Amino acid sequence: MDTTAEYEARYQARSGALCAELQAARRSGLPAGLGKSTSNLFRQRQPAARHRLDVRAFDHVLRIDAERMTAEVEGMITYERLVEGTLGYGLLPAVVPQLKTITVGGAVSGLGIESSSFKYGLVHETVEAMEILTGNGGIVACSACRNPDLFFGFPNSYGTLGYALRLTIRLVPAAPYVYLTHRRFLAPDSFFAHLAQVCAGASADFVDAAIFGADEMYITEAVFAEGAPRVSDYTYMDIYYRSIQRKPNDWMTAKGYIWRWDTDWFWCSKHFGVQIPAIRLFARPALNSRSYQRVMRLSQKLLPPSPGLESVIQDVDIPIAQCAEFREFLLREIGISPIWVCPFQTSDRTYDLCPLKANQLYVNFGFWDMVRTAHGRGHYNRMIEGKVAELGGVKGLYSASYYDRGTFWSIYDKTRYDHLKQTYDPDGVFPDFYAKCVERK
Fold it and tell me: Which of 212, 245, 260 is the last residue of a domain?
């Protein structure tokens, strides 16, 4: 039996066992949740009794079809493992989210993004088919043509309709190296105008940007290359985001480019002291997003919230025409920098729980820090939610949200969600969408 057939047989056996486990959870009356080793959710919750479904074994590449440029993968595989597999074929997933620990299923159940999204959209728009463990206790295969209600309803559902056990995703050709150019802008109007122009063109393979201050903004364009005169390494002493300010151009391996943000969790490694050279010299094994997540979650459990500080960990999607206004609001009212900026183009498809307009260029702003406050809980996060709504944008749900029920369901289609919930999880084995993404219990 070849490796592909072995993996297929194991997948069938594991998925059958998981269905039986979910049926047991339904009989127990306890809500079901995932038992897994990684998470990129940043929402503090009160501990709750749940029947944990052990899905850690669903972390394999089942098949790579180099001719069709697709990969069949299990939902809990991390992008780190997936990229290792596809690069051997000279291919990459069309969109590879920025952290090694993000899983393929998680990137679809949430809204995964990266610097190729200006061409290919968000991660779920690169998915061709899925097999989803639903609250009914069975596995439903879905695509745009087969059970399309689940296929278009699953993205951004955050595990409230079920869990993706198997996905078919699109791949794209990859060269060994990537050439980067960093162009500085002083004014927001020219910055966002050029960003839109670059996204409309066909010359770049990757586009993202960074805002360091009111008059210091950089757009990074990157293209695949077959060779490189030199290669930068940002996995140890050299820090990628600082290179943006000092290097007009740069060369990296394709793998190095894909994981350029992981070593320092963008710039958030500063909170752990490892950007101090004397500490960094001895911290190489810990320079990765997995280590930072473990330390952060441990500190959340052991340390009380700091008085006078509010955690602002947010990603928001703003239509390109309103981006200058949002940038000005963010710098003036919130005061966080640097800010990650990543454009993405939506397709002509619509997804039930993704309230983004079709065929439109959006810009994702990512900002993650502590903000000093003399206000009540969630003051700045609530301000951000209000401004995003005012500008016709959408806020990511992976982190703290403060919407009341009425506001939440004015953003998301409750009628459509209730129909999906009744169809695929009528007994409420998985939590409700609002409860999962907003409530703190």
Answer: 260
Looking up tokens 């295969």 gives 141
Identify the three-state secondary structure at position 406: helix
Q: Retrieve residue 139's tokens.
A: 């596995």
pLDDT in tens, 49-92: 567 788 888 999 999 999 999 999 999 999 999 999 999 999 99
Distances from the Cα of 87 to the Cαs of 62, 68, 82, 84, 111, in angstroms? 15, 15, 9, 6, 23
What single string gives the DSSP state of each residue in 15-27? HHHHHHHHHHHHH
Domain co-membership, 45 together with 181? no
Residues 108 and 154 in one domain: yes
CA distances from 255 to 84, 106, 153, 231, 321 (A): 9, 21, 32, 12, 33
pTM score? 0.94
Residue 251: which residues within 8 A CB-CB, separation 6 or more? Answer: 177, 178, 179, 180, 225, 228, 229, 230, 231, 232
d(CA 428, CA 438): 17
Residue 371, token pair as written in the block: 């903000």
Q: How far is CA 168 from CA 63, 108, 130, 192, in A?
A: 9, 12, 6, 34
> Is residue 388 within 8 Å of residue 395, measured between CB atoms?
yes
